[in-house]
Design brief:
The chain is α+β, with helices and mostly antiparallel strands. The chain folds into 2 domains: 128 residues, Creatine Amidinohydrolase, Chain A, domain 1 (3-Layer(aba) Sandwich); 267 residues, Creatinase/methionine aminopeptidase superfamily (Creatine Amidinohydrolase, Alpha-Beta Complex), CATH 3.90.230. 33% of the residues lie in helices and 22% in strands. The chain contains 11 helices and 17 strands. The strands form 4 sheets. The protein has a 6-stranded mixed β-sheet, with helices on both faces. Strands 13-12-14-15-16 form a 5-stranded antiparallel β-sheet, sandwiched between helices. A 4-stranded mixed β-sheet has the order 9-10-11-17. Helix 8 crosses helix 9 and helix 10 runs antiparallel to helix 11.
């Protein structure tokens, strides 16, 4: 990205800091740092309200400097050198300093309290998140690239199943390799501290019911207790509904897509009916994804449509373990504001990116879902996950191709 873009973002933040009487923002989180500087390498980004921004790192700064032309990079090896850097920037005394406590660890904050004992600390997390909700043209281009990379994923899955890759793990490995060759960064960033996600999941049957990583279903069977989210060793049986929920990370920007596939024979008729219902409901939601739409009202629209289709009891999850959302913002993080949840009064605006997720858990059958990512435009919405939505059945023996259940 152009350094001028990051300078523009910093300048806008500086104006806000100045209006609030905050002397500087001290950013430790990799996503905050990248958004305002262009580097995710280990460092602290300091953005004073009235002076030029700079980076502080305890490691060799040459590599960082190459990534952030126009920004000063100070390297310190001990507290005395750090204090000298801060004094040169005028960050001493009883100043109001903004931090993101949602991503700064207690250990980091304790260090800064020792280094700047007179400082008054302000929570600017809401300000930082609000600034990232509306994407600029560079971000929109990256998101569209991410969506386009997912176009052929159902075809890749069909080819892998024909080749006999009929375990969740084998199918996922085949799909992940394709995405890596399309430019996937190899990991998915989530909000908060030390939250991580697999590139995606190809799950089938009983393993779909385990809500491990977050409230919901379709998270997959664990390979090991230390890998509690993603594909497991479960073998996909003929006719199983296979949920392909994958996330593309293109140059740091995420795009999410969910499609359905089966192999050997058609899925149970009940699963196909649910999928048709979900496609109909998605169509209703797409008509309302536009500037001015209230997040809670979008949630209510989907919830009422699910109730009319008699799907509420299994949406999403069984019993009391249900996910209470139908979508969320997406960008440098997989999960960003706004959230399509009950009570959320935020209105959609042009430039937002929204990932929509609808899923139903059928007891004894598995999960049926559909998911897409949209850009909110002045006219309405643009779906940037263009993969065909048809439920594919991979034919291995035409004689067995029949509906079951």
């Amino acid at each position: 990205m152009e350094s001028a873009l990051f300078a523009q973002r910093r300048g806008s933040l500086q104006e806000e800091l100045s209006r609030r009487g905050i002397a500087a923002a001290l950013l430790s989180d990799r996503v905050d740092r990248f958004y305002f500087s262009g580097t995710m390498q280990s460092s602290y980004l300091i953005i004073p309200a009235e002076k030029e921004a700079f980076l502080l790192t305890g490691r060799a700064g040459e590599g960082i400097a190459r990534e952030v032309p126009g920004l000063k990079v100070y390297t310190f090896q001990n507290p005395a050198e750090l204090s000298a850097c801060l004094a040169e920037a005028g960050l001493v005394g009883r100043l109001r300093l903004g931090i993101n406590p949602e991503t700064m660890t207690a250990v980091e904050f304790g260090r800064w309290q020792r280094w700047l004992p007179a400082a008054v600390w302000e929570d600017i997390a809401p300000l930082l998140k609000r600034r990232r909700r509306i994407k600029d043209e560079v971000e929109l281009a990256a998101l569209r690239k991410a969506g386009e990379a997912l176009r052929e994923l159902p075809k890749w899955a069909a080819a892998a199943l024909k080749e006999g890759k009929t375990s969740e793990l084998a199918l996922s490995v085949a799909l992940e390799s394709k995405l890596r060759l399309k430019g996937h960064g190899g990991f998915v960033r989530c909000g908060g501290i030390l939250r991580e996600s697999a590139i995606g999941v190809a799950t089938a049957g009983a393993s779909q019911s385990a809500g491990r990583f977050f409230a919901g279903v379709g998270t997959g069977g664990e390979l090991d207790p230390v890998v509690s989210y993603g594909p497991g060793k479960h073998r996909i049986e003929p006719g199983d509904p296979v949920l392909l929920g994958y996330i593309m990370n293109y140059r740091g920007y995420h795009c999410k897509q969910t499609r359905m596939i089966s192999y050997g024979k058609n899925p149970p008729a009940a699963a196909r009916q649910v999928y048709d219902d979900l496609l109909e409901i998605v169509g209703l939601l797409e008509q309302e994804l536009k500037p001015g739409a209230v997040a809670a009202e979008l949630y209510a629209l989907v919830a009422k449509a699910m109730e009319r289709k008699n799907r509420s009891e299994s949406l999403p999850g069984l019993g009391g373990k249900k996910g209470k959302f139908f979508g969320h913002g997406i960008g440098l993080l997989l999960d960003e504001e706004p959230y399509l949840v009950p009570g959320a009064q935020e209105k959609l605006q042009a430039g937002m990116a929204i990932a929509v997720e609808l899923a139903v858990m059928l007891r004894g059958i598995g999960v049926v879902g559909i998911g897409d990512t949209y850009l909110i435009t002045k006219e309405g919405q643009e779906r940037i996950t263009p993969a065909q939505r048809e439920w594919r059945t991979v034919v291995t023996d035409p004689k067995t191709l029949k509906a079951s259940g």
